[in-house]
Amino acid sequence: MGSVPLIADADVNAALAQLPGWSRSGEEILKTFDRPTFADAIAFVVRIGFLAEAADHHPDLDIRWRRVRVALTTHDAGGLTARDIELARRIEDVA
Fold first, then answer.
1. How many angstroms separate the CA atoms of 14 and 76, rounded?
2. Scanning 10, 15, 19, 43, which has the fewest C-beta atoms within 10 Å of its C-beta?
3. What is residue 1's three-state secondary structure?
4. 91, 48 contact by CB (below 8 A)
5. How many CB atoms lie within 10 A of CB 4?
6. pLDDT tens by residue, 37-47
């Protein structure tokens, strides 16, 4: 995969302004999605899984009944990179 450069705080903030509901917590960006049913929450996680595999970039996911919390960071870079922003955008597309 190679080293991926961290992005500047200003770039993170600009990207978050275009990603409704996403916020920053330390070195992660995150969002909780409310789904209509538990089954839809599971199906949403499966869609995220396919996106993550295709991007070779895997979020932390937490499922609580109809709620799915998604947290993104680039662990091997030690913070936020363009990969996190791009995957957040793709997740929004399938939400």
1. 23
2. 10
3. coil
4. yes
5. 16
6. 999 999 999 99
User: Hunting for tokens 């799915």 — which residue is that?
Assistant: 68
CA distance 47 to 35: 13
Going from N- to C-terminal start, the domains of the chain cover 9-94
| The CATH number fitting domain 9-94, selected from 3.40.50.12780, 2.40.30.160, 3.30.230.70, 3.30.1360.20 | 3.30.1360.20
C-alpha atoms less than 13 angstroms from C-alpha of 29 in its C-beta half-sphere: 28
The answer to whether 33 and 48 are in contact (CB under 8 A) is: no
Rg of the Cα trace of the chain?
Answer: 13
Tell whether pTM > 0.85. Answer: yes
| Length of the chain counted residue by residue | 95
Report pLDDT for 1.
Answer: 47
User: Which helix (H) or strand (E) segment is 84 a member of?
Assistant: helix 82-94
Distance (Å, whole) CA 76 – CA 87? 16
